[in-house]
Amino acid sequence: MRFLRRKEAESADDTGEVEAAEEDLAASKAHTAAKGRPTPKRREAEQRRRGPVAPPPRTTREAIKRARGNKDERKELAAKRREVRVKQRERMMAGDEKYLMPRDRGPVKAYIRDYIDSRRNLLGLFMPLAILIFVALLVPNARVQSLTTLLCLLMLVAMIIEGVLAGGRITRKVRQKFPKEPVRGLSVGWYAFIRASQIRKLRVPKPRVSPGVKVE
User: Fold this and answer.
1) In the structure, what pLDDT confidence band is assigned to residue 13 with cuts at 50, 70 and 90?
2) What percent of the chain clears pLDDT 90, i.e. is strictly above it?
């Protein structure tokens, strides 16, 4: 008798658990169904974020007026962007660290530029020399071409020698002035060579010192 009563009690407990689980499932379904609408699509969500869409124009005049308004807005936006670019260019040419390219930033690079800009050198004739070679090749005279080529070759050799010597000299000065900065001789020499080989008026950023000024 005890065995039968125990089994009946266990059966009643199991039935109660099943009924409770069914009630929870029904409640969950009812809660889900209460949503009452499908999940919004991505396009609909983006449209809600952008705000209400303007109704289509009712007349041709309204369409033309709206098109002109959009065109004016685009022109105004382009003008603002152009103005921002001009200001950024001006600040970069003035040497503002915020607007300089990464290769030109830092006190070491600023010192190298000042050191190069304060001196006159043969490397400044590099670009005019390249133009001279191009013009000489167009002259239909073998003697002129040969003399010009020889002169340009000698000038090029002199420029290379001057660049190597100037690179070593400025590397030593940079290491003395910035002992805590990691200075690589090849990087300093190449940066100085590129700066010196450019025409002074075309250097970016613009020179801050005049030729002949002593930079230590």
Assistant:
1) very low
2) 18
What is the H or E stretch that residue 131 is in?
helix 126-138
Two tokens at 115?
């050191």
C-alpha to C-alpha distance for 153 and 138, rounded to whole angstroms: 18
Residue 200 is encoded by which pair of tokens? 């002074």
Q: Which two tokens stand for residue 176?
A: 């003395």
- Asked if residue 135 has pLDDT above 60, the reply is yes
Q: What angle do CA 156, 160, 162 make, to 5 degrees?
A: 115
CB neighbour list of residue 124: distance below 8 Å, 6 or more residues apart: 196, 197, 198, 199, 200
Radius of gyration of the chain from its Cα atoms, rounded to whole angstroms = 39
Task: Report the candidate in 212, 110, 116 with the shortest Cα–Cα distance to residue 163.
Answer: 116
3-class DSSP string for 60-83: HHHHHHHHHHHHHHHHHHHHHHHH
